[in-house]
Amino acid sequence: MKDTSQISGFYRLTTEERAATVSRLVALSRTEQDALESGGLELDRANRMIENVIGVYDLPLGVATNFLVNGVDYLIPMVIEEPSVVAGASYAAKLARAGGGFVTQSTPSEMIAQIQVLDLVDPWSARFALLNETGRLLEFADAVDPVVVGVGGGARDLEVHVISDSRVGPMLEVRLVYDCRDAMGANVLNTIAESLAPEIERISGGRVNLRIVSNLAERRLARARCVIPSEALTVDAFPGEAVVERILEAHAFALATPYRAATHNKGIMNGVDAVVVATGNDWRAIEAGAHAYAARQGRYSSLSQWEKNQHGHLVGTLEMPVAVGTVGGATRVHPTAKLALKILGVQSARELAEVIAAVGLAQNLAALRALATEGIQRGHMQLHARQVAIAAGAEGDEVDLLVQRMVKEKLVRADRANALLAELRESVAR
Ligand code: MEV
Hints:
By secondary structure, the chain is of the alpha+beta class. 50% of the residues lie in helices and 18% in strands. The protein has 16 helices and 10 strands. The strands form 3 sheets. It has a 4-stranded antiparallel sheet with strand order 3-8-10-9. Strands 5-6-4-7 form a 4-stranded antiparallel sheet, with helices on one face. α4 (85-98) packs across α13, α9 packs across α10 and α14 (377-391) packs across α15 (397-409). Bound molecules: (R)-mevalonate (MEV). (R)-mevalonate binds next to α10 and α13. The site of (R)-mevalonate has 9 residues, from α10 and α13.
């Protein structure tokens, strides 16, 4: 555990100073510090992760500060290409800290495997037969991976749903619920689904087609809550109480239309994905699960809720599926992912999922606060201008000079950056 995640002026340090500060706080070894600098993933290891490898692809790894979750300080490693996300998370975590930090909870790490059964004459009788054998099927599932069962995981439930379909006739959807503890679970659930298939065919008299984990991990939820004192939300011309009201209006907008809900949730996923990627987890699975969960009532909506308490303070809650692991997959193969887990200091997949939910809620707050007051472009402009300047070919001091000029002119565009760079180089040559 870190003494604190409140590191004053962290953003003003050089990258080396930041790395040294984090290394000291979480006691990184020399090798781990080297991995931070180099990106960690060697070509040889990359070549063993996927097929047809020709190189490795780097992204920035930043650390968000100020996170207090269930009374514990966390430094949050975030891998992301988008400017303002790490700064936004750190700022929102500071606001949440003023109200006591984030409080989180999670359900057990229960994933669902789906087995599709077809060619059924009497699907309801097939369902009856399968449910009759639930105990034996769960025992069968438990025998597949004794390691997971040994650490307290295993099969929890079997559901059988009859689906009528005009194209392929009646189907059964067999859902096996399985607690995969600290694993993400896709591998173990897929293995179990494939192993169970012959047994399911025998009992149901049907034919099994698909056997695969579901990414709608509705039994593996993480929740986060924070209270933001209204006075902490004051921004220049906007008193805190007005900012609370404007954030509530923004939330109502996300509830009212999926066009806004998609962007609202995208802001949440900016934070969620950055930690998911940093820790070597499967961000496509998280994205699929989050959006399917957001649409579970038949209409796509906001994953977060914002309300005002009796003191007029802003209260945010987020609930979403977070199927992440701390063992298996890339989490232990990618050296920087291992490092990210060490920086976080989480002890279990559930703790990681809860911290991720807190980061998602923080990111949502940062976006709503900016959108409901000054707009996001002011904060974005500086960082965006940096990217535009670098893309135009600016180097060293040229970057800052171009950024200053473009921000002052409120004209951050590639053509302007090119022109300014040419001008600058010409004046230096003269
Ligand atoms: C940009 O990456 C994310 C936002 O659009 C989120 C939002 O609109 O809530 C700022």
